[in-house]
Amino acid sequence: MCALALGLGGGCFRGDFLDDTCEQLGQCTAAASTSTGPATGTTPPTTGDDTSTSTSTSTSSSGTGTGDGSSSGTTGEPPGILFEGPAFRIDQLQIVDPHLYISKLFCQDVTAFVNTGLTSSVQEHDSNVLLVAKDYDPMAATQTFLLYRDADCPLGEDYCVLLKDVLPTSFVSGNKDAGNCLDVQVSTVNPTNINTINIPNAPCVTSPTASVQLELTSDLSPITFYQGKFAAQYAETQEDPTELRNAILYGFIPKADAEMITYTFMNMQINFWSVIRGSDHPDACPVPADMMPGSVSDVDMLDLDADGPEPPTIGVFLYLNFSAKRVKFYAPF
Fold this sequence. Notes:
This protein has one domain (17-332). The longest helix is centred in the middle third of the chain and has 13 residues, at 111-123. Residues 1-74 have low confidence and may be disordered. It contains 3 helices and 16 strands. It has helices spanning 22-25, 111-123, 255-258, and strands at residues 80-82, 87-97, 101-102, 108-109, 130-134, 142-148, 159-161, 169-176, 204-206, 210-214, 223-235, 243-254, 262-265, 268-271, 300-302, 313-332.
């Protein structure tokens, strides 16, 4: 039905992440992904407490905790060296805000159809995004996660193999034993969609604010999520989780980036900025004038240059519900 690209790579940082890019630090490698968004600036604080972050590294730890070194579903040799620590592959992903509207179809809401394309990409293993809990400790206040934008995950198997040219993003997140880990900027969500956002209840984990890249189909380039954040619920138990449930991932996409994203819908090439209701794209649908609760523009603004002279950047916060299942994770021999 459609294809939409979003994928993970690049560095994760605290509030001044744009001043701490690998280019600034002189730590970039040829294999690292590059951002399509603004190159300088800082992000304002979120509504919750952030934890410290670290830059991308070329090593990781993950796995399913079985420790037997065998590849599930096969009787031959394992595909590599089994990493310790639980690894989770995203197996469900849905856009929940904003909804997407196409003017060529009389401004019909096509969010469900786009989500069908995302689901197909994940289920067919065209998209393989992994969250890996490094040195997993369920009793610790913080937990280091490695996020891989891609991996080799054979269809029908319960394992993935590290791709040598894909560097992980390493960041320190907070574990919670009570309450929930939802930390959403309500002003950036359409009122009619707020109740559709996943709420990860304890035991759960929430990441710090960071700049990350998302890539969910192989035919489109990664895009940068500014002020990105994720939260997820450990299941079935925090001590030995087999899934991440009721998870939410969101971030800001500047207008300039959104205008560079295109996807195919019903054999039509659609520009992402054009499906954001209330945007200034010539093909964008207008905001309804009926003054109902959901009749507001989906365009947002974010100050990417908090300490500088530049005005806030126009764009959109994109919210995605997701879940992830545990897999074995190998480094190739």
